[in-house]
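re the bet — no i am not wrong, look at it urself. input seq straight from the record:
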Amino acid sequence: MRMELYCDRTAILRGIPCNDGIDEALKRLEELRSEGVDVKIVDTARMSDQEIQANYFRAIQPSVRKKYSVRQIFGSLSRPAWLFARGVPALVVQEPPGEAVADVFPHKKSGRIVTIHDALDRANPTA
């Protein structure tokens, strides 16, 4: 498994439901990386809008297959992706590494937001 976190740490919107537990999640990702887990942290602060859009379209691929919502997590109906990897960090999971994107967090499934923190807890419940 490979995890990629797209994030501008200075722009994170704390206090919104899709970012619940984000500070703990950032610490956990750093711990996983130091333990040898394939974690890549991508600083999006200097990325162009085109680079952000390209990463957004790659990241949301599993939302169609798995039937969950990301559009209003990372933006709005009229402005999709405007918060992607800036105000709302995005965790992209590939299984196996180099293959298509398997999952993206946060997302909304069955009316419930599944945060990055939730995803990390589910992947490693003893952490």
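see?? The longest strand covers residues 2-7. told u. also The radius of gyration is 13 Å. so pay up
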